[in-house]
Design a protein that fits this description.
The protein is α+β, with helices and mostly antiparallel strands. Helices cover 36% and strands 25% of the residues. A hairpin with a 3-residue loop joins strand 9 and strand 10. Helix 10 packs across helix 12 (338-354) and helix 11 (317-326) runs antiparallel to helix 12.
Length: 355
């Protein structure tokens, strides 16, 4: 038996997980699977794969022919991968808070606490071949606030022939469950957005979501994502950054958004429409009038060609540089040079409409 080196209940209680972001625990489990596959790929050649099974409430809709079960509420997920497995090194990391085991990949060592923040419990089963004696072994235990001690024993798994780790996130807590989208394709799209940086790699494992239908995240990525062939390099206060511009064309994104990635994970997503409209100093203009004028101008652009606009904006880095110079903050905290910003926007809009 093994136990955590921290106050688990206190760590989970203090873990910040907004109620309106119920898929974060799922993202953490998927990223863990990606890391486990990458770790195994360093030792041997194989095709990595991750399956995300959606678990729904079976009691909400009777088993009647023709009834779509996808209207049932989602109660959990099952994430299955063929990565390195929960070996001794990974098990030791699992029992530590803020583990640095995967710090080089951007891992903070706290993602699993989100599982218990949003779910009643987690069941983990991992089968892999022990490197020391070449025997297939299995480690299986429940991860919950009710069980502070974990049975980390290894038992021989006769008949096993493939690495398989299954993390079951069981029973969404009501406060998070009510915010979960029931549509499997939408969930698959959100997974794609979160894992975009991994999907760009040629060694990315095959990831699929399984419900009434099967959704390939990799295929979805190739169909809905446009990538520039070459990345751009910029310098910000002496720090060098490499930028690869991509565009997502899908209604589930919910408008124009900017996704920021670092250390192989999404750090933040920004609603561009909201940022532009709310973070400006309207000066002597009435806010409502300014919004109407702004939205009218963008509506004209949208009517011209929405797809062309997306490509246009993505390639106009020079505009961003001008905006960066124009949006200076005064000592009173307000943005200045509003007229300058408006001129840039309207000139660029006019140029686009003339094309």
């Amino acid at each position: 038996m093994a136990g955590f080196t921290i106050d688990l209940a206190g760590r989970v209680r203090n873990f910040d997980l907004p109620k309106n972001q119920p898929l974060i625990p799922l993202y953490e489990a998927i990223v863990n699977s990606i890391y486990a596959i990458q770790e195994r790929q360093q030792k041997e050649e194989f095709d990595g794969k991750i399956e995300v099974e959606i678990i729904r409430d079976p009691q909400q809709v009777a088993e009647i022919e023709g009834i779509d079960k996808s209207i049932n509420e989602i109660t959990g997920f099952r994430i299955i991968d063929n990565g390195v497995g929960l070996d001794d090194n990974n098990m030791k990391s699992f029992l530590q808070s803020d583990s640095t085991y995967r710090a080089d990949k951007g891992g903070k060592g706290v993602g699993r606490f989100s599982w218990l923040k949003a779910f009643l419990k987690t069941h983990i089963e991992s089968v892999y071949k022990d490197e020391n004696d070449g025997v297939w072994v299995k480690r299986e235990f429940e991860f919950s606030l009710d069980k502070l001690d974990i049975d980390d024993r290894l038992v021989e798994e006769k008949g096993a022939f493939e690495n398989r780790t299954c993390v079951s996130l069981i029973d969404y807590l009501p406060s998070y469950r009510k915010h979960v989208n029931k549509n499997a394709e939408t969930i698959a799209m959100k997974i794609m957005q979160h894992c975009m940086i991994y999907l760009m790699s040629p060694k990315c494992p095959q990831i699929c979501v399984i419900d009434e239908e099967r959704y390939s995240i990799n295929s979805m990525f190739e169909k809905k994502i446009y990538r520039e062939r070459e990345s751009a390099n910029i310098d910000v206060n002496g720090e060098k950054f490499e930028i690869l511009h991509t565009q997502v064309h899908d209604i589930s994104v919910g408008g124009s958004k900017l996704f920021l990635f670092a250390n192989d994970r999404m750090v933040k997503d920004i609603d561009l429409n909201k940022e532009i409209l709310e973070k400006i100093d309207v000066g002597t203009e009435n806010l409502a009038e300014y919004k109407d004028k702004f939205e009218t101008q963008f509506q004209k652009i949208s009517e011209a060609n929405m797809a062309a606009l997306a490509e246009y904006v993505a390639h106009r880095k020079v505009v961003l540089e001008l905006l960066k110079k124009g949006i200076n903050i005064k000592e009173d905290g307000k943005f200045n040079k509003e007229a300058y910003i408006s001129i840039i926007l309207y000139i660029q809009c006019a140029e686009h409409q003339m094309k």
